[in-house]
Amino acid sequence: MKKLVLLSLSLAVLMPAAGFASEFVEKGRAIFEKFQKTVVTVQIVIKSKISGPGMGGQSNEARQEVTGTIIDPSGLVVMSLTATDPSQMLESLMAGSESRFKMETELSDIKLLLEDGTEVPAEVVLRDKDLDLAFARAKGKLPAGMPHLDLSDSAKAQVLDELVSLNRLGNAAGRAYAANAERVCAIVQRPRLFYVPESSLSTTTLGSPAFTMDGKVLGIFVMRNAKGRTGGMAGISPDAVAGIIVPADAVLKAAKQAPAAAPSKPAEEKAADESKPAEPK
């Protein structure tokens, strides 16, 4: 009899928890199905040159892939500035040190890699160092009906609220769309509002969008750094950087500063331009 009572009590405790988990999964899958294609892989080539005492000048060129979120039908994509240009963060962290560290970078050959393998050329049109945001705009036309994330349909969150983040995995995983369970562990109000996600291991990458469980966008994952908090060339202090979520309304406000897309010419006008003889130099 005693064992039956204990079993009944255990089931009474576990059943609500199981129901809650099931509800999270159902809502999370709905968010994934609705918004997954707003996330794209952005392939960039970074040319960098690093200099400092005892280093001389070291040049490097690397091709890498970062996460971007389409936020406008014209093909405007938001990314983390740190992911696309690490020099901004490193020079900020080294500010005030005696290392005289300097890193110069140049982005080239930027492409949006769509789900069907299509490569759409793009260019960076705006950088926001304070928010760690970079905006790129597609040069080519995106496929008809390509979804975008409406940042005006946003929400706020509270400490311990559960979130869902979306991103695309790397080439080794077939660039599959992925979803992660996240949680707000802190909210910072000054100097500006941002959310600090729980630091548990997940596949969420910088540039990924975060959603509340009612399907509203909360913001974009970026990196925040404390200026001048470094150990010099020996290493960066662990508390000098943190992954955060910039609220959607702040991202939207920054996006409005991006130059408008140039109006596309009709096919007839393009053909006429191409047929004009070159002007003498």
**Helical region count?**
5
The parts where pLDDT drops under 50 for at least 5 residues are 4-9, 11-15, 231-235, 266-271
Mean pLDDT metric: 82
Name the structural class: alpha+beta
Distance between the termini: 100 Å
Chain-wise SSE layout:
Elements: H1 2-35, E1 39-52, E2 56-70, E3 76-80, H2 81-84, H3 87-94, E4 102-113, E5 119-128, E6 133-138, E7 162-168, E8 177-188, E9 194-197, E10 209-212, E11 217-225, E12 241-247, H4 248-255, H5 267-275
Antiparallel strand pairs: 1-2, 1-4, 2-3, 3-6, 4-5, 5-6, 7-8, 7-10, 8-9, 10-11, 11-12
Could you explain how this protein is built, in words?
- This protein has 281 residues and is an alpha+beta fold.
- The strands form 2 sheets. A 6-stranded antiparallel barrel has the order 1-2-3-6-5-4. A 6-stranded antiparallel sheet has the order 9-8-7-10-11-12.
- The chain has 5 helices and 12 strands.
- The longest helix has 34 residues, at 2-35.
- The protein is globular and about 55 Å long.
- A hairpin with a 4-residue loop joins strand 10 (209-212) and strand 11 (217-225).
- The protein has helices spanning 2-35, 81-84, 87-94, 248-255, 267-275; strands spanning 39-52, 56-70, 76-80, 102-113, 119-128, 133-138, 162-168, 177-188, 194-197, 209-212, 217-225, 241-247.
